[in-house]
Amino acid sequence: MSETGASRDAGADLGEGDGFPSAYRDAWEPGAGAETAGATAAEAAEDSDRDLPHVVAWNLTARCNLECPHCYISAGSWRSDGDDLSTEECRRITDQVLDVNPAPLFVLSGGEPLVRDDLEEIAAYASGQGATVVVGTNGTLLTRDRIASLKDAGVRGVAISVDSLDPDYHDRFRRGAGALEQTLAAVERLREGRLDFVVQTTLTRANREEVPELVAWAAEKGAVCFNLYFLVGTGRGEGMASDGRLTGLSPEQNEEVLAELAELQREYRGRLMIRSKCQPQLMRHVHERDPDSPLLNYRTRCPCGVQYCRITPEGKVTPCPYMPEVAGDLREASFGEVWRGSELFRRLREESLGGKCGRCAYRELCGGCRARAHAETGDPMGPDESCAYEPDGREEAIQPPREITYGESADREMPWTEDAEERLERVPSFVRGVVANRLEDYARRKGESRVTAELMTRVRKEMPIDFSERMPFFARGGEGDGDE
Ligand code: SF4
Ligand code: SF4
Ligand code: SF4
């Protein structure tokens, strides 16, 4: 997902609890891990698990066949590809990201990434080097051939935008006649092609009442996750969030929707993951309503600049697709130099939050959306005023019971049989270490002395999630392709 602030099918923000990574988190319900803000940039550079770019959202182009009014990257068909990174530059940058983290998750988006003829070439190169690759798309160009070529290129999943099941609304919002029909047909082709998909919906006043129906539809279609996006006023969406025009909801209305979403995530647990995007305040609601939720075991605070960043079509690095503030230019410096040396990233990793977010008990579970704080106050460390909660400033910060770190090394503390090792190798590398820990924890609890393929099968059957139609890619590795 890319656009500054507003919409994201284009690849948007799979950062905070979003889509694929959090799908993994719930599926395996891991333990242990930890990254906390407060390290210096130098320390971060030396630390293999903390402050690493675990998720990189990459806007490969600003071109798009649609023209949504809220688009954070102001995409459209008139946009030129003249300054887009070339295929060769994309390869070079991929190598540089993998030098910093050999197992990142790349979210390739746009604009509409399918307008790039070399999308598969870029995806194949990244996946061949060890990255996990997913694609964010509006879905209208997702033909059977494209689905097959994406799969061949190692793409593990697709995020697709559906704003309403009412074509009048969706097509008007996306400014494309027939867009919903094309996107729904693409969902059917993804099912047939057995490529995992996430449904993304941008929340507006007009579709607010439709959210439960969209969730039910996504579950019925076999989506891995449903992400509800709350508008950030950036890109073409600038001004739309704060003045309530077209899409904006008041903080009180946000509260109502988040409360409803927290209930839905409880209701659908085990069938469909449900998340808010650009609104980490969902974690406050989950903590209040469902304190035993496995969601709270994981790092839930906004990860931008700490574990997450975005690359623009021209090679600029920003903390998040919704924050246009540039940390560095990959045509002038390497990714590692930007990641480790950027003053903006240093601030996001080291400085305390300002305003009410800084004195809020939920600052570690939520922390507010940094992109929204930047859009509304000019300071990425400022308060997120889209939140209606008023902290009293006297409370200790609530900590997640346990935190998980993506990309940690798969160190073994127990013996593993050869077939178990082989299965682990088929788990995406960015979560392999966590999966290994989870399996060893399980073996210890059951009094087993080693990890076997049979034990892995048992863990999978006992997982707190049961996708009725298939297992998502992150859970399938340990079982080979048996679910295909
Ligand atoms: S479909 Fe195109 S115009 Fe609409 S939000 Fe996505 S990238 Fe932007
Ligand atoms: S800045 Fe906002 S949209 Fe970006 S990762 Fe953080 S919470 Fe998500
Ligand atoms: S005040 Fe800030 S940290 Fe607290 S719940 Fe609201 S957005 Fe989150």
What attributes does this structure have?
disordered C terminus, binds iron/sulfur cluster, 10-stranded mixed β-sheet, 10% strand, disordered N terminus
Describe the structure.
The chain has 484 residues and is α/β, with parallel strands linked by helices. The chain is 36% helix and 10% strand. A ten-stranded mixed sheet has the order 7-6-5-4-3-2-1-8-9-10, sandwiched between helices. Strand 2, helix 4 and strand 3 (132-137) form a beta-alpha-beta unit. Helix 3 packs parallel to helix 4 (119-128) and helix 9 packs across helix 10. It is globular. Mean pLDDT is 81; it is low at 1-48, 464-470 and 477-484. One iron/sulfur cluster (SF4) binds at residues 13, 15-16, 278, 280, 302-304, 308, 320, 322-323, 369-371.
Bound molecules: iron/sulfur cluster
State the major sheet: 10 strands, mixed
User: Structural class, from secondary structure content?
Assistant: alpha/beta
Helix content: 25-40%
Measured between the Cα atoms of the first and last residue, the distance is 26 Å
Radius of gyration: 21 Å
**Envelope shape:** globular
Strand order of the largest sheet: 7-6-5-4-3-2-1-8-9-10
Tally of separate helices:
18
Give the total of beta strands.
10
Strand content: 5-15%
Q: Which H/E pattern describes the elements?
A: HHEHEHEHEHHEHEHEHEEEHHHHHHHH
The mean pLDDT is 81
Low-pLDDT regions: 1-48, 464-470, 477-484
